[in-house]
Specification:
The chain has about 300 residues and is of the alpha+beta class. It is built from 10 helices and 10 strands. Helix content is about 35%, strand content about 25%. The strands form 2 sheets. Strands 1, 2, 3, 4, 5 and 6 form a 6-stranded mixed β-sheet that branches. It starts with a helix and ends in a 5-residue tail after the last strand. It binds adenosine-5'-triphosphate. Adenosine-5'-triphosphate binds next to helix 2 and helix 3.
């Protein structure tokens, strides 16, 4: 048996890059520069990609997993870009063997790339022994993408504005979610373009920050009052989203069936793990080409 010194010294470890889900998403306006103003509660699911980190004297990145072939050019990959950005910021040599296990469908609205980027920053701070400088890391994360700072938090957050205002939510009860991604491209810019045309300057009124809700039941009751304002625009881009929402809503004991982000991922909320698993089984039989997964909230 070989005992790796790297393992013992924290030189090899694996982190999860959890999927990001918008429990609701309201568009409350548009800035002069064209960016839409949003309000959303973002949660992270215990389904996600994985990134493993091993000490190595140069930077080596490999991608494996079911969706590995869907990720484009390595130099464009957010794992690579995050590693380079961190090395530059801290004047540290870019080193380490990083293996991304791509389990989340790509460009599906679950923020897989953003979560991979945040996880890479987190992992390399540890691997390189960098100081724990929260503000500096969050600023760097924001340069990699609007959702990357939230993906560093990895816990439920309230998001506002063009993604730059973020507040941690009080503890939430575990949720029983079913995530469903029909295999259709739903480019975010196209969805916002269609949304802008449809909305024609009419936006949702801003809501108050949602505070503590103790039970899942209270959460569901609240979330029923809200929606994802991008739904109709996303359906216009990818009509399969309508089919996915209807199929989720038709599963027994489904309380909410909703689009996440700009799609195409949709989700259902259930009050028990058994109900969520039954929904997964039903949806997989009815729609074998869809990516369907039961998930709870991500915990470190
Ligand atoms: P969001 O919800 O933040 O809009 P998304 O889930 O729709 O994100 P991602 O899976 O993050 O989309 O991919 C968006 C784009 O980023 C894709 O075109 C993909 O080629 C590119 N990309 C770069 N790095 C990654 C990565 N590590 N994983 C997935 N996509 C990546």
């Amino acid at each position: 048996m070989t005992i790796s010194l790297a393992n013992m010294s924290g030189g090899h470890f694996t982190l999860t890059a959890p999927a990001k889900i918008n429990l609701f998403l309201h568009v409350t306006g548009r800035r002069d520069d064209g960016y839409h103003l949003l309000q959303s509660v973002v949660v992270f699911a215990d389904a996600g990609d994985k990134v493993s980190f091993t000490r190595h004297d140069s930077l080596f990145i490999d991608i494996e997993g079911y969706f590995a072939s869907h990720v484009g050019d390595l130099r464009e990959n957010l794992v690579y870009r995050a590693a380079q950005a961190l090395a530059q910021e801290y004047k540290h040599e870019a080193t380490g063997k990083l293996v991304l296990e791509k389990n989340l469908p790509v460009a599906s609205g679950m923020g897989g790339g953003s979560s991979d980027a945040a996880t890479t920053l987190k992992g390399l701070v540890k691997l390189w022994g960098l100081p724990d400088e929260r503000d500096r890391l969050y600023k760097l994360a924001a340069t990699l993408g609007a959702d990357v700072p939230a993906c560093l938090v990895r816990r439920p957050v309230w998001m506002e504005g063009a993604g730059e205002k973020m507040m941690r939510m009080p503890d939430m009860p575990d949720m029983h979610l079913v995530l469903v991604t029909p295999p259709v491209a739903t480019p975010t810019p196209e969805v916002f373009k269609r949304f802008a045309k449809r909305a024609a300057g009419r936006y949702s009124a801003p809501i108050q920050f949602i505070g503590r809700r103790k039970t899942m039941h209270e959460w569901i009751a609240d979330l029923k009052l809200y929606r994802n304002d991008l739904t109709d625009a996303a359906i216009e881009v990818s009509p399969d989203i309508r089919t996915a929402l209807a199929a989720i809503a038709a599963t027994p004991n489904c309380h909410i069936a909703r689009l996440s982000g700009s799609g195409a991922t949709c989700f259902g909320i259930y009050e028990s793990a058994a109900a969520a698993q039954a929904a997964v089984n039903k949806l997989r039989i009815e729609h074998p080409r869809w990516w369907v997964k039961a998930a709870g909230l991500f915990k470190e």
